[in-house]
Protein backbone atom coordinates (compact mmCIF):
# COMPACT_ATOMS: atom_id res chain seq x y z
CA UNK A 1 0.00 0.00 0.00
CA UNK A 2 1.34 3.34 -1.00
CA UNK A 3 1.99 6.00 1.62
CA UNK A 4 -0.59 8.24 0.09
CA UNK A 5 -3.35 5.68 0.53
CA UNK A 6 -2.28 4.98 4.13
CA UNK A 7 -2.39 8.66 5.01
CA UNK A 8 -5.84 9.02 3.52
CA UNK A 9 -7.20 6.12 5.58
CA UNK A 10 -5.84 7.55 8.81
CA UNK A 11 -7.32 10.98 8.16
CA UNK A 12 -10.68 9.48 7.25
CA UNK A 13 -10.77 7.47 10.48
CA UNK A 14 -9.98 10.53 12.60
CA UNK A 15 -12.64 12.58 10.86
CA UNK A 16 -15.24 9.87 11.43
CA UNK A 17 -14.43 9.64 15.14
CA UNK A 18 -14.69 13.40 15.50
CA UNK A 19 -18.07 13.46 13.81
CA UNK A 20 -19.39 10.72 16.09
CA UNK A 21 -18.14 12.51 19.21
CA UNK A 22 -19.74 15.79 18.20
CA UNK A 23 -22.98 13.96 17.47
CA UNK A 24 -23.08 12.44 20.97
CA UNK A 25 -22.37 15.81 22.60
CA UNK A 26 -25.11 17.45 20.58
CA UNK A 27 -27.60 14.71 21.54
CA UNK A 28 -26.74 15.07 25.24
CA UNK A 29 -27.08 18.83 25.05
CA UNK A 30 -30.43 18.54 23.35
CA UNK A 31 -31.67 16.07 25.99
CA UNK A 32 -30.55 18.33 28.85
CA UNK A 33 -32.10 21.32 27.16
CA UNK A 34 -35.33 19.41 26.87
CA UNK A 35 -35.46 18.70 30.62
CA UNK A 36 -34.84 22.31 31.50
CA UNK A 37 -37.55 23.22 29.14
CA UNK A 38 -40.05 20.93 30.89
CA UNK A 39 -39.33 22.49 34.34
CA UNK A 40 -39.37 25.97 32.85
CA UNK A 41 -42.66 25.28 31.13
CA UNK A 42 -44.13 23.97 34.38
CA UNK A 43 -42.92 26.99 36.32
CA UNK A 44 -44.28 29.34 33.68
CA UNK A 45 -47.59 27.51 33.83
CA UNK A 46 -47.82 27.77 37.62
CA UNK A 47 -46.81 31.40 37.87
CA UNK A 48 -48.74 32.65 34.84
CA UNK A 49 -51.05 35.43 35.96
CA UNK A 50 -50.18 34.55 39.57
CA UNK A 51 -48.39 37.76 40.47
CA UNK A 52 -51.62 39.40 41.58
CA UNK A 53 -53.31 36.19 42.72
CA UNK A 54 -50.59 35.46 45.25
CA UNK A 55 -51.76 38.46 47.25
CA UNK A 56 -55.06 36.81 48.18
CA UNK A 57 -55.95 33.60 49.98
CA UNK A 58 -55.82 30.55 47.69
CA UNK A 59 -59.41 29.37 48.15
CA UNK A 60 -62.21 28.82 45.64
CA UNK A 61 -64.87 29.96 48.11
CA UNK A 62 -63.86 33.15 49.89
CA UNK A 63 -66.42 32.55 52.63
CA UNK A 64 -64.48 29.52 53.87
CA UNK A 65 -61.18 29.68 55.74
CA UNK A 66 -57.98 28.19 54.46
CA UNK A 67 -56.78 25.38 56.71
CA UNK A 68 -53.14 25.45 57.83
CA UNK A 69 -51.71 22.33 59.46
CA UNK A 70 -48.96 23.23 61.93
CA UNK A 71 -46.33 21.04 63.58
CA UNK A 72 -43.26 21.88 65.65
CA UNK A 73 -40.44 19.52 66.56
CA UNK A 74 -38.08 20.62 69.31
CA UNK A 75 -34.44 20.17 68.39
CA UNK A 76 -32.97 21.59 71.59
CA UNK A 77 -33.01 24.26 74.25
CA UNK A 78 -30.10 26.61 73.67
CA UNK A 79 -30.35 28.93 76.67
CA UNK A 80 -32.63 29.98 79.51
CA UNK A 81 -31.97 33.50 80.77
CA UNK A 82 -33.59 33.95 84.20
CA UNK A 83 -32.65 37.60 84.52
CA UNK A 84 -34.01 38.62 81.10
CA UNK A 85 -36.93 36.15 81.24
CA UNK A 86 -36.03 34.78 77.80
CA UNK A 87 -35.72 31.25 76.47
CA UNK A 88 -33.82 30.40 73.29
CA UNK A 89 -34.94 27.25 71.46
CA UNK A 90 -34.31 25.41 68.18
CA UNK A 91 -37.40 24.17 66.31
CA UNK A 92 -38.20 22.39 63.09
CA UNK A 93 -41.41 24.04 61.91
CA UNK A 94 -43.69 22.55 59.26
CA UNK A 95 -46.72 24.20 57.63
CA UNK A 96 -49.07 22.36 55.24
CA UNK A 97 -51.95 23.78 53.19
CA UNK A 98 -53.65 23.33 49.82
CA UNK A 99 -53.53 25.82 46.95
CA UNK A 100 -56.10 24.91 44.26
CA UNK A 101 -54.49 27.33 41.80
CA UNK A 102 -51.17 25.46 41.83
CA UNK A 103 -52.06 22.12 40.19
CA UNK A 104 -50.91 20.32 37.02
CA UNK A 105 -50.85 16.97 35.33
CA UNK A 106 -47.46 15.30 35.73
CA UNK A 107 -47.63 13.54 32.32
CA UNK A 108 -47.80 16.90 30.58
CA UNK A 109 -44.49 18.03 32.03
CA UNK A 110 -42.22 15.05 31.78
CA UNK A 111 -43.63 13.29 34.86
CA UNK A 112 -42.66 16.08 37.30
CA UNK A 113 -44.82 15.83 40.45
CA UNK A 114 -42.97 18.20 42.80
CA UNK A 115 -41.54 21.68 42.40
CA UNK A 116 -39.50 23.70 44.92
CA UNK A 117 -40.40 27.35 44.58
CA UNK A 118 -39.07 30.29 46.63
CA UNK A 119 -41.69 31.66 49.06
CA UNK A 120 -41.46 35.14 47.51
CA UNK A 121 -43.26 33.80 44.43
CA UNK A 122 -46.17 32.16 46.27
CA UNK A 123 -48.87 32.92 48.79
CA UNK A 124 -47.63 31.87 52.23
CA UNK A 125 -49.39 32.06 55.62
CA UNK A 126 -48.23 34.83 57.93
CA UNK A 127 -47.74 32.59 60.98
CA UNK A 128 -45.62 34.38 63.57
CA UNK A 129 -44.55 33.86 67.16
CA UNK A 130 -46.68 36.20 69.26
CA UNK A 131 -44.54 36.19 72.42
CA UNK A 132 -41.32 36.76 70.53
CA UNK A 133 -38.61 38.63 72.37
CA UNK A 134 -38.11 42.21 71.22
CA UNK A 135 -34.40 41.58 70.72
CA UNK A 136 -35.00 38.57 68.48
CA UNK A 137 -32.97 38.23 65.32
CA UNK A 138 -36.12 37.99 63.21
CA UNK A 139 -37.44 41.53 62.99
CA UNK A 140 -39.83 42.98 60.48
CA UNK A 141 -37.72 44.89 57.95
CA UNK A 142 -38.73 48.08 56.22
CA UNK A 143 -41.48 46.92 53.87
CA UNK A 144 -40.71 48.68 50.62
CA UNK A 145 -42.41 46.38 48.18
CA UNK A 146 -45.00 43.66 47.91
CA UNK A 147 -42.26 41.09 47.55
CA UNK A 148 -40.84 42.15 50.91
CA UNK A 149 -44.24 41.92 52.54
CA UNK A 150 -44.71 38.43 51.18
CA UNK A 151 -41.28 37.14 52.02
CA UNK A 152 -41.20 34.55 54.74
CA UNK A 153 -38.38 36.27 56.50
CA UNK A 154 -40.57 39.34 56.80
CA UNK A 155 -43.33 37.37 58.48
CA UNK A 156 -41.94 34.49 60.47
CA UNK A 157 -38.26 34.02 59.76
CA UNK A 158 -38.47 31.18 57.20
CA UNK A 159 -36.02 31.36 54.31
CA UNK A 160 -36.43 27.89 52.80
CA UNK A 161 -38.32 27.02 49.60
CA UNK A 162 -41.88 25.78 49.49
CA UNK A 163 -42.44 22.25 48.21
CA UNK A 164 -45.37 22.34 45.75
CA UNK A 165 -47.04 19.08 44.67
CA UNK A 166 -49.08 18.49 41.53
CA UNK A 167 -52.34 18.11 43.52
CA UNK A 168 -51.97 21.57 45.09
CA UNK A 169 -50.69 20.47 48.49
CA UNK A 170 -47.83 22.65 49.68
CA UNK A 171 -45.34 22.05 52.49
CA UNK A 172 -43.11 24.61 54.13
CA UNK A 173 -40.30 23.44 56.40
CA UNK A 174 -37.68 25.46 58.17
CA UNK A 175 -35.19 25.25 61.02
CA UNK A 176 -35.67 28.35 63.17
CA UNK A 177 -34.02 29.62 66.35
CA UNK A 178 -36.64 31.38 68.47
CA UNK A 179 -36.07 33.78 71.34
CA UNK A 180 -39.34 33.89 73.22
CA UNK A 181 -40.46 35.43 76.48
CA UNK A 182 -41.04 33.06 79.38
CA UNK A 183 -42.22 33.89 82.89
CA UNK A 184 -39.50 32.16 84.91
CA UNK A 185 -40.25 31.56 88.59
CA UNK A 186 -37.01 31.22 90.56
CA UNK A 187 -38.68 30.62 93.93
CA UNK A 188 -37.52 26.99 94.11
CA UNK A 189 -34.06 27.57 92.62
CA UNK A 190 -32.06 25.34 92.13
CA UNK A 191 -34.78 22.67 92.41
CA UNK A 192 -37.17 24.48 90.07
CA UNK A 193 -39.28 23.55 87.07
CA UNK A 194 -40.33 26.02 84.39
CA UNK A 195 -43.28 25.95 82.00
CA UNK A 196 -42.60 28.02 78.91
CA UNK A 197 -45.19 28.70 76.23
CA UNK A 198 -44.79 29.73 72.61
CA UNK A 199 -47.91 31.09 70.89
CA UNK A 200 -48.08 30.74 67.08
CA UNK A 201 -50.90 32.42 65.15
CA UNK A 202 -51.67 34.44 62.05
CA UNK A 203 -50.89 38.11 62.34
CA UNK A 204 -53.65 39.37 60.04
CA UNK A 205 -56.25 36.61 59.63
CA UNK A 206 -58.97 35.67 62.08
CA UNK A 207 -60.53 32.26 62.50
CA UNK A 208 -63.03 32.86 59.66
CA UNK A 209 -60.31 33.41 57.08
CA UNK A 210 -57.52 31.13 58.37
CA UNK A 211 -57.93 28.08 60.56
CA UNK A 212 -54.70 26.98 62.22
CA UNK A 213 -54.76 23.34 63.27
CA UNK A 214 -52.39 20.80 64.77
CA UNK A 215 -51.13 18.37 62.15
CA UNK A 216 -52.60 14.90 62.41
CA UNK A 217 -50.44 12.21 63.94
CA UNK A 218 -48.82 14.42 66.56
CA UNK A 219 -48.81 13.17 70.16
CA UNK A 220 -51.43 14.51 72.51
CA UNK A 221 -51.27 16.19 75.88
CA UNK A 222 -48.07 15.89 77.92
CA UNK A 223 -46.24 14.02 75.20
CA UNK A 224 -42.61 13.42 75.98
CA UNK A 225 -39.92 15.19 74.04
CA UNK A 226 -38.33 13.81 70.91
CA UNK A 227 -35.34 12.52 72.84
CA UNK A 228 -37.59 9.87 74.41
CA UNK A 229 -39.04 8.85 71.05
CA UNK A 230 -35.70 7.86 69.57
CA UNK A 231 -34.96 11.02 67.60
CA UNK A 232 -31.30 11.58 66.77
CA UNK A 233 -31.64 15.30 66.16
CA UNK A 234 -32.51 16.28 69.72
CA UNK A 235 -29.64 17.99 71.54
CA UNK A 236 -29.49 17.74 75.32
CA UNK A 237 -28.92 20.88 77.35
CA UNK A 238 -26.29 20.81 80.09
CA UNK A 239 -28.46 22.70 82.58
CA UNK A 240 -32.04 21.80 81.64
CA UNK A 241 -33.94 18.65 80.75
CA UNK A 242 -37.14 18.68 78.68
CA UNK A 243 -39.74 16.56 80.47
CA UNK A 244 -42.56 16.93 77.96
CA UNK A 245 -43.90 19.17 75.21
CA UNK A 246 -47.48 19.69 74.01
CA UNK A 247 -49.27 21.56 71.22
CA UNK A 248 -52.77 22.82 71.96
CA UNK A 249 -55.19 24.84 69.86
CA UNK A 250 -57.05 27.89 71.20
CA UNK A 251 -59.15 30.72 69.88
CA UNK A 252 -58.25 34.01 71.51
CA UNK A 253 -59.08 37.68 71.08
CA UNK A 254 -55.69 39.32 70.66
CA UNK A 255 -56.81 42.72 69.37
CA UNK A 256 -60.23 43.15 70.89
CA UNK A 257 -61.07 46.83 71.25
CA UNK A 258 -64.27 46.58 73.30
CA UNK A 259 -65.85 44.03 75.58
CA UNK A 260 -68.96 43.66 73.41
CA UNK A 261 -67.43 44.25 70.02
CA UNK A 262 -69.65 42.33 67.62
CA UNK A 263 -67.31 42.63 64.68
CA UNK A 264 -64.17 41.41 66.37
CA UNK A 265 -63.43 37.72 65.76
CA UNK A 266 -61.00 35.43 67.56
CA UNK A 267 -57.71 34.28 66.15
CA UNK A 268 -56.86 30.59 65.97
CA UNK A 269 -53.54 29.93 67.66
CA UNK A 270 -51.43 26.92 68.55
CA UNK A 271 -49.61 27.05 71.88
CA UNK A 272 -46.46 24.99 72.30
CA UNK A 273 -45.90 24.27 76.02
CA UNK A 274 -42.64 22.87 77.37
CA UNK A 275 -41.82 21.67 80.87
CA UNK A 276 -38.16 22.26 81.70
CA UNK A 277 -36.48 20.80 84.77
CA UNK A 278 -33.18 22.18 86.02
CA UNK A 279 -30.25 19.83 86.59
CA UNK A 280 -29.22 20.24 90.24
CA UNK A 281 -25.93 18.33 90.52
CA UNK A 282 -23.76 21.35 89.75
CA UNK A 283 -25.57 23.62 92.19
CA UNK A 284 -25.55 21.04 94.99
CA UNK A 285 -21.81 20.45 94.69
CA UNK A 286 -20.73 24.05 94.16
CA UNK A 287 -23.27 26.11 96.14
CA UNK A 288 -25.19 24.03 98.70
CA UNK A 289 -22.55 21.60 100.00
CA UNK A 290 -19.83 24.23 100.73
CA UNK A 291 -22.38 26.43 102.49
CA UNK A 292 -23.52 23.48 104.62
CA UNK A 293 -19.95 22.62 105.62
CA UNK A 294 -19.21 26.22 106.61
CA UNK A 295 -22.42 26.39 108.65
CA UNK A 296 -21.63 23.09 110.42
CA UNK A 297 -18.28 24.40 111.67
CA UNK A 298 -20.21 26.61 114.09
CA UNK A 299 -20.77 23.46 116.17
CA UNK A 300 -17.07 23.49 117.03
CA UNK A 301 -17.61 26.77 118.83
CA UNK A 302 -19.55 24.98 121.57
CA UNK A 303 -17.10 22.06 121.73
CA UNK A 304 -13.98 24.20 122.08
CA UNK A 305 -13.11 24.76 125.80
CA UNK A 306 -13.75 28.22 127.17
CA UNK A 307 -10.24 28.32 128.66
CA UNK A 308 -8.66 28.22 125.18
CA UNK A 309 -9.65 31.83 124.41
CA UNK A 310 -10.30 31.09 120.70
CA UNK A 311 -14.05 30.65 120.70
CA UNK A 312 -14.99 34.21 119.73
CA UNK A 313 -12.28 34.31 117.05
CA UNK A 314 -13.55 31.05 115.58
CA UNK A 315 -17.12 32.37 115.43
CA UNK A 316 -16.08 35.61 113.72
CA UNK A 317 -14.00 33.68 111.19
CA UNK A 318 -16.94 31.42 110.32
CA UNK A 319 -19.26 34.42 109.96
CA UNK A 320 -16.84 36.21 107.62
CA UNK A 321 -16.31 33.04 105.58
CA UNK A 322 -20.03 32.68 105.06
CA UNK A 323 -20.39 36.33 104.04
CA UNK A 324 -17.52 36.05 101.52
CA UNK A 325 -18.93 32.80 100.09
CA UNK A 326 -22.34 34.39 99.61
CA UNK A 327 -20.76 37.35 97.82
CA UNK A 328 -18.82 35.07 95.47
CA UNK A 329 -21.88 33.00 94.58
CA UNK A 330 -24.36 35.87 94.29
CA UNK A 331 -23.70 36.19 90.55
CA UNK A 332 -24.86 32.62 90.00
CA UNK A 333 -28.18 33.23 91.73
CA UNK A 334 -31.04 34.53 89.57
CA UNK A 335 -32.20 37.99 90.56
CA UNK A 336 -35.92 38.48 91.07
CA UNK A 337 -37.92 40.97 93.08
CA UNK A 338 -41.08 38.88 92.93
CA UNK A 339 -39.67 35.62 94.31
CA UNK A 340 -36.76 34.97 96.69
CA UNK A 341 -34.82 31.81 95.71
CA UNK A 342 -34.60 28.94 98.18
CA UNK A 343 -30.83 28.92 98.00
CA UNK A 344 -30.59 32.63 98.85
CA UNK A 345 -33.00 32.05 101.73
CA UNK A 346 -30.78 29.21 102.99
CA UNK A 347 -27.74 31.50 102.87
CA UNK A 348 -29.53 34.20 104.86
CA UNK A 349 -30.80 31.78 107.51
CA UNK A 350 -27.34 30.23 107.88
CA UNK A 351 -25.75 33.63 108.45
CA UNK A 352 -28.40 34.46 111.05
CA UNK A 353 -27.77 31.16 112.86
CA UNK A 354 -24.01 31.73 112.87
CA UNK A 355 -24.46 35.25 114.25
CA UNK A 356 -26.83 33.98 116.95
CA UNK A 357 -24.37 31.26 117.95
CA UNK A 358 -21.61 33.86 118.19
CA UNK A 359 -23.75 35.99 120.53
CA UNK A 360 -24.60 32.95 122.67
CA UNK A 361 -20.89 32.14 122.93
CA UNK A 362 -20.14 35.60 124.28
CA UNK A 363 -22.82 35.16 126.97
CA UNK A 364 -21.46 31.74 127.96
CA UNK A 365 -17.94 33.15 128.27
CA UNK A 366 -19.33 35.87 130.51
CA UNK A 367 -20.86 33.20 132.76
CA UNK A 368 -17.63 31.21 132.79
CA UNK A 369 -15.58 34.06 134.26
CA UNK A 370 -18.03 35.12 136.99
CA UNK A 371 -17.31 34.63 140.73
CA UNK A 372 -20.44 36.12 142.32
CA UNK A 373 -23.32 34.31 143.94
CA UNK A 374 -25.59 32.57 141.44
CA UNK A 375 -29.32 33.40 141.59
CA UNK A 376 -31.38 30.59 143.03
CA UNK A 377 -33.73 30.43 140.02
CA UNK A 378 -30.82 30.26 137.60
CA UNK A 379 -29.18 27.60 139.74
CA UNK A 380 -32.31 25.49 139.78
CA UNK A 381 -32.90 25.76 136.02
CA UNK A 382 -29.33 25.19 134.86
CA UNK A 383 -27.65 23.07 137.55
CA UNK A 384 -30.67 20.86 138.14
CA UNK A 385 -33.04 20.75 135.17
CA UNK A 386 -30.74 21.34 132.19
CA UNK A 387 -27.95 19.28 133.77
CA UNK A 388 -30.23 16.24 133.83
CA UNK A 389 -31.22 16.76 130.20
CA UNK A 390 -27.63 16.88 128.91
CA UNK A 391 -26.47 14.25 131.47
CA UNK A 392 -23.92 16.46 133.19
CA UNK A 393 -23.06 16.00 136.88
CA UNK A 394 -22.17 19.36 138.49
CA UNK A 395 -18.99 19.52 140.56
CA UNK A 396 -20.79 21.31 143.44
CA UNK A 397 -24.04 19.85 144.79
CA UNK A 398 -26.67 21.47 146.98
CA UNK A 399 -26.24 21.02 150.79
CA UNK A 400 -29.52 20.17 152.51
CA UNK A 401 -28.92 22.22 155.70
CA UNK A 402 -27.63 25.51 154.40
CA UNK A 403 -29.06 25.39 150.89
CA UNK A 404 -25.60 26.07 149.40
CA UNK A 405 -23.63 23.74 147.18
CA UNK A 406 -20.61 22.14 148.88
CA UNK A 407 -18.19 19.64 147.50
CA UNK A 408 -17.36 16.35 149.15
CA UNK A 409 -14.07 17.53 150.65
CA UNK A 410 -15.72 20.53 152.30
CA UNK A 411 -18.47 18.33 153.75
CA UNK A 412 -15.91 15.88 155.18
CA UNK A 413 -13.97 18.71 156.82
CA UNK A 414 -17.16 20.10 158.34
CA UNK A 415 -18.17 16.66 159.64
CA UNK A 416 -14.77 16.06 161.26
CA UNK A 417 -14.82 19.52 162.84
CA UNK A 418 -18.32 18.91 164.20
CA UNK A 419 -17.32 15.56 165.79
CA UNK A 420 -14.21 16.97 167.51
CA UNK A 421 -16.14 19.98 168.77
CA UNK A 422 -18.80 17.72 170.23
CA UNK A 423 -16.16 15.69 172.13
CA UNK A 424 -14.49 18.79 173.51
CA UNK A 425 -17.83 20.23 174.64
CA UNK A 426 -18.78 16.99 176.46
CA UNK A 427 -15.49 16.97 178.45
CA UNK A 428 -15.86 20.62 179.33
CA UNK A 429 -19.42 20.12 180.57
CA UNK A 430 -18.40 17.16 182.75
CA UNK A 431 -15.55 19.09 184.39
CA UNK A 432 -17.77 22.10 184.99
CA UNK A 433 -20.46 19.96 186.62
CA UNK A 434 -17.91 18.34 188.93
CA UNK A 435 -16.61 21.69 190.16
CA UNK A 436 -20.08 23.06 190.70
CA UNK A 437 -21.04 19.94 192.64
CA UNK A 438 -18.08 20.23 195.03
CA UNK A 439 -18.79 23.91 195.64
CA UNK A 440 -22.36 23.08 196.54
CA UNK A 441 -21.22 20.46 199.04
CA UNK A 442 -18.91 22.84 200.86
CA UNK A 443 -21.57 25.51 200.97
CA UNK A 444 -24.14 23.21 202.48
CA UNK A 445 -21.69 21.87 205.09
CA UNK A 446 -20.90 25.36 206.24
CA UNK A 447 -24.51 26.51 206.59
CA UNK A 448 -26.01 23.53 208.34
CA UNK A 449 -24.66 20.11 208.68
CA UNK A 450 -27.95 18.76 210.06
CA UNK A 451 -29.78 19.44 206.83
CA UNK A 452 -27.60 17.10 204.90
CA UNK A 453 -28.32 13.40 205.54
CA UNK A 454 -25.25 11.28 206.11
CA UNK A 455 -24.74 7.66 205.45
CA UNK A 456 -23.73 5.21 208.08
CA UNK A 457 -20.03 5.53 207.16
CA UNK A 458 -20.16 9.34 207.49
CA UNK A 459 -20.27 10.09 203.78
CA UNK A 460 -22.80 12.15 201.99
CA UNK A 461 -25.96 10.40 200.87
CA UNK A 462 -25.75 8.92 197.41
CA UNK A 463 -29.30 9.92 196.54
CA UNK A 464 -28.47 13.52 197.26
CA UNK A 465 -25.47 13.41 194.99
CA UNK A 466 -27.50 11.85 192.26
CA UNK A 467 -30.18 14.48 192.62
CA UNK A 468 -27.68 17.30 192.46
CA UNK A 469 -26.03 15.89 189.39
CA UNK A 470 -29.35 15.39 187.73
CA UNK A 471 -30.31 18.98 188.48
CA UNK A 472 -27.06 20.36 187.08
CA UNK A 473 -27.14 18.23 183.92
CA UNK A 474 -28.96 19.84 180.95
CA UNK A 475 -31.68 18.06 179.12
CA UNK A 476 -30.93 16.37 175.80
CA UNK A 477 -32.78 18.99 173.76
CA UNK A 478 -30.53 21.70 175.07
CA UNK A 479 -27.51 19.62 174.14
CA UNK A 480 -28.86 19.26 170.60
CA UNK A 481 -29.37 23.00 170.23
CA UNK A 482 -25.89 23.68 171.56
CA UNK A 483 -24.45 21.17 169.10
CA UNK A 484 -26.24 22.79 166.14
CA UNK A 485 -25.00 26.22 167.14
CA UNK A 486 -21.46 24.89 167.43
CA UNK A 487 -21.74 23.17 164.03
CA UNK A 488 -22.98 26.38 162.46
CA UNK A 489 -20.19 28.36 164.10
CA UNK A 490 -17.67 25.83 162.84
CA UNK A 491 -19.07 25.68 159.28
CA UNK A 492 -19.54 29.31 158.26
CA UNK A 493 -15.95 30.44 158.78
CA UNK A 494 -14.85 27.67 156.38
CA UNK A 495 -17.55 28.57 153.86
CA UNK A 496 -16.67 32.26 153.98
CA UNK A 497 -13.07 31.34 153.35
CA UNK A 498 -13.87 29.35 150.11
CA UNK A 499 -17.02 31.09 148.83
CA UNK A 500 -15.32 33.01 145.98
CA UNK A 501 -13.80 29.84 144.56
CA UNK A 502 -17.06 28.03 145.18
CA UNK A 503 -19.10 30.59 143.21
CA UNK A 504 -16.59 30.49 140.37
CA UNK A 505 -16.87 26.71 140.10
CA UNK A 506 -20.64 27.00 140.06
CA UNK A 507 -20.59 29.41 137.10
CA UNK A 508 -18.11 27.21 135.24
CA UNK A 509 -20.44 24.25 135.67
CA UNK A 510 -23.31 26.36 134.38
CA UNK A 511 -21.24 27.42 131.34
CA UNK A 512 -20.38 23.80 130.48
CA UNK A 513 -24.02 22.79 130.80
CA UNK A 514 -25.12 25.65 128.53
CA UNK A 515 -22.45 24.63 125.99
CA UNK A 516 -23.99 21.19 125.74
CA UNK A 517 -27.51 22.57 125.57
CA UNK A 518 -26.66 25.06 122.81
CA UNK A 519 -24.72 22.41 120.87
CA UNK A 520 -27.80 20.20 120.76
CA UNK A 521 -30.04 23.18 120.01
CA UNK A 522 -27.82 24.39 117.15
CA UNK A 523 -27.78 20.93 115.55
CA UNK A 524 -31.56 20.62 115.80
CA UNK A 525 -32.27 24.18 114.64
CA UNK A 526 -29.81 23.94 111.74
CA UNK A 527 -31.27 20.64 110.52
CA UNK A 528 -34.89 21.74 110.92
CA UNK A 529 -34.31 25.08 109.19
CA UNK A 530 -32.54 23.47 106.22
CA UNK A 531 -35.27 20.85 105.83
CA UNK A 532 -38.06 23.41 106.17
CA UNK A 533 -36.47 25.55 103.46
CA UNK A 534 -35.68 22.89 100.87
CA UNK A 535 -38.84 20.85 101.46
CA UNK A 536 -40.80 23.76 100.03
CA UNK A 537 -39.71 22.57 96.59
CA UNK A 538 -42.10 20.01 95.06
CA UNK A 539 -39.15 18.10 93.61
CA UNK A 540 -37.62 17.57 97.07
CA UNK A 541 -40.97 16.51 98.52
CA UNK A 542 -41.31 13.91 95.79
CA UNK A 543 -38.20 12.17 97.12
CA UNK A 544 -39.85 11.59 100.51
CA UNK A 545 -43.54 11.51 99.54
CA UNK A 546 -43.90 9.77 96.14
Automatic annotation (TrEMBL):
PROSITE patterns noted in UniProt: NEUROTR_ION_CHANNEL (PS00236)
Keywords: Ion channel, Ion transport, Membrane, Signal, Transmembrane, Transmembrane helix, Transport
Topology in the lipid bilayer: Multi-pass membrane protein
Keyword Ion transport: yes
GO CC terms, sorted: membrane
Residue ranges of domain Neurotransmitter-gated ion-channel ligand-binding in the record: 39-280
Domain Neurotransmitter-gated ion-channel transmembrane: 287-533
GO molecular function, a single term: extracellular ligand-gated monoatomic ion channel activity
Top-level taxon: Eukaryota
Principal localisation: membrane
Membrane-spanning residues: 281-300, 344-367, 513-535
Pfam families: Neur_chan_LBD, Neur_chan_memb
Signal sequence bounds: 1-23
Xref: InterPro entries: Neur_chan_lig-bd, Neur_chan_lig-bd_sf, Neur_channel, Neuro-gated_channel_TM_sf, Neuro_actylchol_rec, Neurotrans-gated_channel_TM, Neurotransmitter_ion_chnl_CS
Protein's cellular compartments: Membrane
Family listed: Belongs to the ligand-gated ion channel (TC 1.A.9) family.
Protein name (database record): Uncharacterized protein
Organism expressing this protein natively: Pocillopora meandrina
